[in-house]
Design goal:
Layout lengths: L19 E5 L5 H8 L3 E6 L10 E3 L3 H4 L6 E4 L29 H8 L3 H23 L5 E5 L5 H5 L9 E3 L12 E6 L18 H6 L1 H4 L6 H6 L3 H16 L4 H7 L1
Parallel strand pairs: 1-2, 1-4, 2-3, 4-5
Antiparallel strand pairs: 5-7, 6-7
Length: about 260
């Protein structure tokens, strides 16, 4: 285990109370609470209620918050990406026979079951358009700094996103002390790449420990699968709040302070 970056200065950042931060598509509060702990005026927003009943949560459509010019930093941790990512591009040529209940409502699932192949294909493309519109709205939001998480996108998604730029970096939870595999692509606007805080040594393939690190990918189907897969890991949440929080406020990175000490 090698520590190359520390998160110990200070608990509350000077000027953070006057810096509004919005964490979109989050109902767990993990990223929001990391910013709150550093003194930021941080809020989360999601269609679902806050998992822990926080009063720092806006329940509703994220897009209603993007054009108000209120936020200095917007982080969208888990926008719906089922139709945007490379792993789902196959459904745009041959639609699935049924929808995953983790991503669609019961009404959508029932209506889909009654569709013929052509109607299902049209539904898949319409879902792509909707997902691309949301990501595009996030990417072009009225905020000085933006971070949007998404896996690698296929070309149809890229073509639909205004001012599209490739992801700035792809990170792993185990770079930040969380023993899990889950590639996380960050699309960044006026923000630096995240620096690993606590890189762990990944276990060998085929071992029980490797399987335990792969729980996100091995999660069984069920009503909570999407929610559990989208919950942000605490180590990366702390790194986002510390590193991007410092950058937005114009504070020196923690590792520069350590070297100067």
């Amino acid at each position: 285990m090698s520590k190359i970056y520390h998160l110990d200065w200070p608990d509350r950042f000077p000027g953070a109370a006057d810096c509004p931060v919005l964490i979109g598509c989050e109902e767990s509060g993990t990223v929001r609470d990391a910013f709150l702990a550093r003194g930021f005026d941080a809020w989360s927003c999601d269609r679902a209620p806050d998992r822990n009943g926080s009063n720092r949560h806006i329940r509703g459509d994220l897009r209603d918050q993007l054009g108000k010019g209120r936020w200095r930093l917007i982080i969208v941790a888990h926008p719906p990406c089922t139709r945007l990512c490379n792993s789902g591009v196959r459904w745009l040529s041959e639609p699935p026979t049924k929808l995953n209940p983790a991503h669609y409502t019961l009404d959508e699932i029932g209506a889909y079951e009654l569709m013929d192949r052509d109607a299902r294909l049209e539904f898949m493309w319409a879902s792509l358009d909707e997902g691309a519109r949301l990501f595009s709205d996030v990417w072009n939001a009225d905020a000085e700094h933006v971070a949007a998480e998404n896996p690698v996108m296929h070309r149809h998604a890229k073509e639909r996103i205004e001012n599209y730029e490739p992801a700035a970096q792809t990170v792993q939870p185990w770079w930040f002390g969380d023993p899990q595999f889950k590639g996380t692509g960050w699309y960044l606007r006026k923000l630096p790449n995240l620096v690993p805080t606590n890189k762990l040594k990944p276990p060998a393939k085929g071992t029980d420990e490797h399987k335990a690190w792969s729980l996100v990918h091995r999660a069984p189907p069920g009503p909570n699968r999407a929610r559990d897969r989208s919950t942000f890991f605490p180590g990366m949440s702390e790194a986002c709040a510390d590193q991007w929080g410092r950058h937005v406020l114009g504070l020196p990175p923690a590792f520069e302070l350590e070297m100067a000490a």
